[in-house]
Structure formats: C-alpha cells, structure tokens
Specification:
- It is a single chain.
- This protein is mainly alpha-helical and about 350 residues long.
- It contains 18 helices and no strands.
- Helix 1 packs antiparallel against helix 5 and helix 9 packs parallel to helix 11.
- It is globular, with a radius of gyration of 20 Å.
Length: about 350
C-alpha cells in the first residue's frame, strides 16, 4: 500500500527517537541510582536482611529466605552498600528492557519503548535502591508474568512451566506472591477460548509447588514462624478507619501514575477491546486482581506503598497495547518531571 510506504519513514524515525530516549533514560537513571545507593546509608530493613546474609540458613523468622540467600552470595564479594543493592539498582532497567521485548512484536516498537520509558522514570523506580524482600519478589513476579504471556502467545506449556518456576521463586521471596497466583486462577476462569488453559494452570501449579512445599516444610519445623508473623503479629494496626482506603488510593496513583490512570480511564473502550487479546488480558488481570485484593483490605489494613511494587510492571506493559504514542510520551514526560522534582 502506497500510504504505508509514505508513512514508513515517519514511523521509523518515531521508533528510533523513542529508542534513543529510552536508552538515555536507562543511562541517566542507572548513573543516579548507583550514586544514590553508594551515598544512602543502609535502612533498618536492609541491615536486618544483611544479617540474614551473614548467617545463611534454610529459613528466617518473618519472611521467606530468598533475599537472605541472595545477599549471602553478594557478601562473598563485598559488604559495600552499593554492591549489596546491586540487584535493586539494575532491576528497573532490566524489567523495562524486557517490557520492550514483550510488547514490540505485537504493539509496535514506538509504544513499547514509550511504555517502558514511563515505567523506568517513575519515582518509585528512580528513587528506590533499597534491597529488601521486595527486590526478588518484583524480579520473579514479573519474570513469571512474562513467561506466562509467552506461554499464552505461543500456546506453549514449556513457557508455562517457566512461569510456574518463577512464581515459585517469588513465593520464596515474599508471601505477596499469593495475589499473583490468584490472578492466574482468575485468568484461566475468564478465558474459556484458550483450549489449553487448564493444562497451563496445572503445569504452573506443578512447577511452583516444590517451592511452596519447601516453605511449608520449614515453617512446620520452626513453629510456623512466617505464618505467625504475617497473619497475627504484624496486624496490631488493623481496624476500620475512613482514611485507610484514601491512603491506598494515593499510594496506587503514586506507584503507577495519576496521568496514566486518567488516560486509561478515558480510553475505556480501547481497554475493553484489548481484553479480547489473550496475552493482553493476562497483563490486565495480573495487575487488576492484586490491586483489587488490596483495595478490599484497605478499609481495615494499612496498605504499604511497597505492597504494590510487584504488580506495577504489567500495568505499564498493558498500556502499550491501548494508548497511542502521544499519550504514552506525555505520560513518560510527566513521570520524568515528577522524579526530577523529587
């Protein structure tokens, strides 16, 4: 078609410009994050997990053990703060790059780069260099979603097996992997058009179950310490309060972007249309189900900002399939400006 031939140079230049700004943002944010990680003293939580790394064990008191194992390996090289924070320093750029690889074949290069750019320059990605249980949780939750997307896109049980293994590692990171598991169940229930959906779910369960059983075994042998802490001890602030849902709504907007949420709300017909695409539907459900569970808890429980981190990337990735380049570009500029203001 002659119109495609005429528009090709513009589309190419647009994609190249988006890629250029994405790579610049990767370089600038990495440089800033390395500096911040070297300058900022370890937080109390980070020092606590560093003690885990000093004394490797099969499990620990309040959370699953993966962050302790990760820090134990890093400590074989150095105890410097920036080195212990290295996984958290690199993680946003790595996730953004993977977002581009996932979105570009179906959504186009320009939306893929711009959506990943928006995620990369958001304040919670730019400013958070603390290495905690949320670090491996974010990494393996997104890797699980990415593998499941490829499993759906390619109708591949092998990729579903990888999604289950990554979910298992997320379970060994933090109990907040449970909302993602719930999202997978919801996805299977609302996607009857996928013939292999139950087989895919069975494979995910089979490959994640050994990790969950390990956690059950350790807790059984240690007075259910993780369960006691997470279900009983840490809920002294529980109780109805009118301001708690408002605080959750503010945290949700801050962790994502008020402009992005507004743009998606204005594009509701396009969002509904995107749900017909099975991989994109998975992305929406992977963020919507955890956020809905947290919203249901918010009247009685203080929802922490860090609770949301693992479920933000699928939202930005889904936006690449819905919003046009102009809106994605405006969203990225807005988030960069907010981060610069910080």
């Amino acid at each position: 078609d002659h119109r495609d031939l005429h528009s090709f140079p513009h589309r190419l230049s647009s994609a190249l410009a988006a890629k250029r700004w994405f790579l610049i943002a990767v370089a600038v944010t990495l440089a800033f994050r390395f500096w911040l990680a070297a300058w900022l003293p370890l937080t109390g939580d980070e020092a606590y997990f560093a003690f885990w790394g000093e004394i490797p064990a099969a499990g620990y008191y309040d959370h699953p053990p993966l962050v302790g194992w990760m820090l134990a390996g890093l400590m074989q090289v150095s105890h410097a703060a920036w080195w212990l924070r290295l996984p958290q320093i690199l993680l946003p750029a790595a996730i953004a790059a993977l977002m581009v690889r996932l979105a570009a074949p179906a959504a186009g290069a320009t939306p893929a780069y711009l959506a990943a750019l928006g995620f990369l320059v958001a304040p919670v990605q730019v400013l958070n260099v603390a290495v905690t249980t949320d670090t491996p949780l974010l990494a393996f939750s997104f890797l699980s979603v990415a593998a499941f997307v490829l499993g759906v896109r390619r109708d591949s049980l092998a990729w579903c097996a990888a999604a289950g293994a990554m979910l298992g590692l997320a379970i060994l990171s933090k109990f907040f992997a449970a909302p993602l598991a719930a999202a997978y169940l919801v996805y299977v229930l609302v996607t009857p058009s996928w013939r292999r959906r139950w087989a895919a779910l069975a494979v995910i369960v089979a490959t994640s179950l050994p990790f969950a059983l390990y956690l059950v075994w350790w807790n059984y042998a240690h007075c259910w310490a993780n369960v006691m802490f997470n279900l009983y001890i840490r809920h002294g602030d529980a109780g109805l309060a009118w301001y708690k849902p408002l605080k959750f709504a503010w945290f949700l907007l801050y962790a994502t972007s008020p402009l992005l949420v507004w743009q998606l709300a204005r594009s509701a017909p396009a969002v509904r249309a995107s749900l017909r695409d099975r991989p994109v539907r998975l992305l929406w459900i992977a963020c919507a189900v955890p956020f809905a569970l947290f919203a249901a808890l918010s009247p009685v429980k203080n929802i922490g900002l860090h609770w949301l981190f693992a479920f933000v990337p699928p939202l930005f990735l889904a936006a690449a399939f819905v919003l046009d380049s102009a809106r994605l570009r405006a969203g990225a500029v807005f988030l960069a400006a907010v981060s610069a203001l910080h």
